[in-house]
Amino acid sequence: MYKIVSRRELNPTTTMITVEAPFVARKAEPGQFIILRPTADGERIPLTICDYDRKKGTVSVIFQIVGTTTKRLNAIKEGEYIADFAGPLGNPTEVEGLKKVAVVGGGVGCAIAYPIAKKLHQMGAEVYLIVGFRNKDLIILEDEYKAACSHLTIMTDDGSYGRQGVVTAALKDILDEKAELDEVIAIGPPIMMKFVCQLTKEYGVKTVVSMNPIMIDGTGMCGGCRLTVGGETKFACVDGPDFDGHLVDFDEMMSRNSSYREFERHSYEKTCNLMNKEVE
Amino acid sequence: MANLSPTKNPMPVQDPLVRNHNFTEVALGYSEETALNEAERCLHCANHPCTQKCPVSVNIPEFIQKIKEKDYEGAYQVISVDSSLPAICGRVCPQESQCESACTRGIKGEAVGIGRLERFVADWHNEHAQLSHEKPASNGHKVAIVGSGPSGLTCAGDLAKAGYEVTIFEALHLAGGVLVYGIPEFRLPKAIVQKEIDSLKALGVTVQTNVIVGKSLTVDELFEDGYEAIYIASGAGLPMFMHIPGENLKGVLSANEFLTRINLMKAYKEDADTPVRRGKKVAVVGGGNVAMDAARCAKRLGADEVYIIYRRSEKELPARKEEVEHAREEGIIFRFLTNPVEILADDDKSVKALKCVEMELGEPDASGRRRPIAKEGSDFTLEVDTVIMALGTTPNPLIKSTTKGLETNKKGCLVVDEKGLTSRAAVYAGGDAVTGSATVIKAMGAGKLGAKSIDEYLQNK
Predict the structure, then answer these.
(1) Residues of chain A with pLDDT under 50
(2) A80 and A161 co-located in one domain
(3) Which of A221, A270, A278, B227 is the most exposed place for a label (fewest CB within 10 A)?
């Protein structure tokens, strides 16, 4: 059992929890993920590590309430326990030697982009952080971003905050004006990462993406997380989750991620009904 | 009174057309009366050919003698000298290629049902014997075991009985390894596995779940934490695929994924949170036990047609004979000498059909089996909506990549000497991590060897 030592609702559908998990905290690095199960008969889901405190032995993750498991997770209060929390898994994001980097986050992916930007910033790299959200109400961790980069651009689809438009618009400006980026790191919905990669390919700038496919064990056993990268099959859990974005087959990944959509929808509706009844 | 019947007492089983819709155990076990009758078929040959063919050399004639005397606990004790997991081995060992293959009764008729008798004895013990709560006195030495599958559990049990302070580190949330994520409930009820783990805990073994050695902790850190020896039994690893077009379509999954969803995550239950693909027409590629398990699970999840696609002939099938028979009774369709070449998609990028070629057997290859060769122009398509690849696994890279000086072979399997020692001092290994995909009993044998070697090493240190 792993205690939730603090819990923060970042927006109506996104929550950050900080969990007591000394084994994970001891080793965690930006870009790695954990697998958790909220309750003893629940599903295993992978979540990317957002922050960690080695001294306190805690690890923070952020999740969006999109299905049964995240709904169950969101129902666990501060001071209560979640059943399982295993990690850190996957390889850390490679940051060594980077001097000038654009870090691009989309939606909840911004929570994963944040520790990477922070690490680069602490290393003394010049960090252009671009974060995109659908609207003002969905923006999370704004203060944290400010402290983790040299230049922050916030984009909203509807223009209700920051600049209006998609993240690639801001990235294009940076590529046009400042050029000479060592690398672009993009984390967000697959479609966003796909468009970032299309853009950076034109500019010939190396781009690393963090993939979050379907996964069960997370340790290299089930093969559910396989992707095609440069024509080869790779396992996101042991070979990734970071890959060269110019080589990733995003369309295939998006298709595979929809494998259980029908089940997920039914299951979510059922859970919502049950949980609402419990509240009544 | 000797029983001269040329055939084994049949194993009582659930009706095939009932059981292929449920996940409860297929084989129901011998009654006492049947076990006594079967035991009388044993001739007690002087040279014990059966024992010689057992990977852990169980004294088979002696435990059968105890059954004849109705001393079932005594029979259990005889098996226990050499085997740690009789209730499990009695169910999943390929007896027909081990002990029973050498049985004298098998020359003219069927071998003695050794596996069935072993299961009877173990089940009798589990039902009647009290779990001992006596912890052996500690000898003060700490040993870490990586992985809680059959090899790790066996090694842990033997070391704990000898007084070692044993901690098992398990990557998943539940201990048992392949016994819980791989082998289905209908072949090995999980309550039996849990019982074995509970008895290890009663011996003082600590099981730490959710710790991935190689990630959460490294081998070197285990030594820093005071463990004096380590036994690595991390099991087989990444599932293999065929590298044919269409393999990443929706509806193509590894048997590991399919079985983990079903067995570990209980996705076959109506109220489970974990989804599983419930295909109507399913092709399982491969011919081992894992392929049989996947096919039979698919049937139980409501498939109308389930095919086993195997590139060699029935004779070469590596699965246990009983599993093949059970699968066939349950309506699984076998397509031998058939090999997939492409998986075809519908408009939604889901599996629509499997394109295959017919094969014929040529000269024997390195494995001694006749090499299958594609017959030119023999392509045909099989309409399916789900394809499950059960082709074996390649070793997991996590421990190797984080442990300096740990030698592996060309295939990535850990290299050990005759004592189970790896290229690192005080680091022993066994089971599938060393051999690649093999059997429960072989993994168990390696666990026993590992425990013996670790004991010798620490006593002489």
Answers:
(1) 280
(2) no
(3) A278
The residue with tokens 């911004």 is A110
Q: Any idea what DSSP says for residue B263?
A: I
Burial class (CB in 10 A: 0-12, 13-18, 19+), B341: middle
Q: Where does B16-128 sit in CATH, by number?
A: 1.10.1060.10
Reported as a single tens digit per residue, the pLDDT across B264-310 is 999 998 888 898 999 999 999 999 999 999 999 999 999 999 999 99
DSSP state of B105: G
CA B427 – CA B414 distance, rounded (Å): 11
Mean of pLDDT values over B249-257 = 95
Does the distance separating the beta carbons of B209 and A89 come in below 8 Å? Answer: no
**Sheet strands (E) in B170-288:** 206-208, 229-232, 238-239, 252-254, 281-285
Chain A residues with CB under 8 Å of B248 CB are 226-228, 233, 252, 256
> ipTM, 2 decimals?
0.91
Residues of B in contact with A37 (CB under 8 A): 173
Q: Please judge whether A222 and B239 are an interchain contact, meaning their C-beta atoms are less than 8 angstroms apart.
A: yes
| Mean pLDDT of all residues belonging to chain B | 93
> What pLDDT, on a 0 to 100 scale, did the predictor assign at position B132?
67
Longest dimension (CA), chain A: 58
**Which CATH number fits the domain that encloses residue A70?**
2.40.30.10
**B216·A68 Cβ contact <8 A:** no
Q: Which of A221, A239, A261 to mutate to test the interface with B (most CBs of B within 10 A)?
A: A221
pLDDT classification of B378: cutoffs 50, 70, 90: very high
For chains A and B, count residue pairs whose Cβ atoms are closer than 8 Å: 120
- For B299-358, how does the pLDDT look when each residue is reduced to its tens digit (9 = 90+)? 999 999 999 999 999 999 999 999 999 999 999 999 999 999 999 999 999 999 999 999
B239-393 sits in which CATH class?
alpha beta
Q: Which one of A35, A67, A89 terminates a domain?
A: A89
- From the number of C-beta atoms within 10 Å of its C-beta (0-12, 13-18, 19+), residue B1 rates as exposed
Q: Does A235 reach chain B within 8 Å, measured CB to CB?
A: yes
For the domain covering B142-237+395-459, report its CATH number. 3.50.50.60
> Closest approach of chain A CAs to the CA of B286, in angstroms?
16
Angstroms from A27 CA to nearest CA on chain B: 6
pLDDT of residue A277: 60
Report pLDDT digits (tens) over B92-122. 998 999 999 999 999 999 999 999 999 999 9
CA B88 – CA B115 distance, rounded (Å) = 10
